[in-house]
Amino acid sequence: NEAPVRVGRGPLVVLLYHHRYLFCPSHQKDTLTMKLATVFALFGSAAAFAPVQQQARSSSLSAWKDETVVGITAPMGFFDPIGLSKGKDDATMSHYRESELKHGRVAMAACLGWYLDAAGVHPAFNSELSNDPLEAARQLNPVGWLQFVLGCGAIEWLAEKIKERPGYKAGDLLGAAYWVDDSDEGWVDYQNKEINNGRLAMVAFMGIFVQDLFYGNYGDMIFKQ
């Protein structure tokens, strides 16, 4: 019942056999040819053991799905359209959830800011910037960009410090997990709404960004006359 062991130093073995084949007497070549075939057969056998590790990882992913009640909602179920979670362990899946929440929150804020700017609400810099968000980004002076970069950097630094807390749950920067857990259906429903709205916002922002970048349309396109 020992764990399968992969065959190592494969190219070196083949090279040694090839060298001996070239410089050995002709009556030994058939024997060496069979030995070389055996080596390749061993490689094939070793490759057959690869799914053992993959199966273990798949089992780990299945366990993560069973233990996770947030983000798995109808009608999509487990949302992974391009299979990024395949073969990943718990730590990687937690990192993915953290990234999904962060990008979803940023996308929701970006959509809200875009809509307000496009509607003419632009209180910053005495409303001198364009209502086209991409044009406003080009018009923003270096001091404004410096404030933006420093502000984002401060938030990221604070988030990394919060992650060092014992019992930290992915994406829970405010520490709600210390007061309520996923056995509360209302709390689970709230988290699912956040994740689903974040997913929608990421797709939506990609659409409105491309719409403005390539066609110059940054305002309301649904009720546009």
Task: Describe this protein's structure.
With 225 residues, the protein is mostly helical. It contains seven helices and two strands. The chain has a two-stranded antiparallel ribbon. A hairpin with a 3-residue loop joins strand 1 and strand 2. Helix 1 runs antiparallel to helix 2 and helix 4 packs across helix 7. The radius of gyration is 28 Å and the shape is globular. The N terminus is likely disordered.
Concise overview:
This protein is 62% helix and 2% strand. The protein is mainly α and 225 residues long.
Present the secondary structure layout.
Layout: H1 10-23, H2 29-48, H3 50-67, E1 72-73, E2 77-78, H4 90-118, H5 133-139, H6 142-162, H7 185-215
Antiparallel strand pairs: 1-2
Helix pairs in contact: 1-2, 4-7
Helix/strand class: mainly alpha
* Rg: 28 Å
Cα separation of the termini? 73 Å
Strand count, sense and barrel status of the largest sheet are:
2 strands, antiparallel
Mean pLDDT: 74
The residue fraction in helices comes out at: 55-70%
Please mark out the parts with pLDDT under 50 across 5 or more consecutive residues, or reply none. Answer: 1-29, 32-58
The main sheet orders its strands as 1-2
The amount of beta strand, in percent, is under 5%
- Strand tally: 2
Q: Which shape, going by the Cα principal axes?
A: globular
What count of helical segments does DSSP give? 7
Following the backbone from N to C, one meets helices and strands in this order, namely: HHHEEHHHH
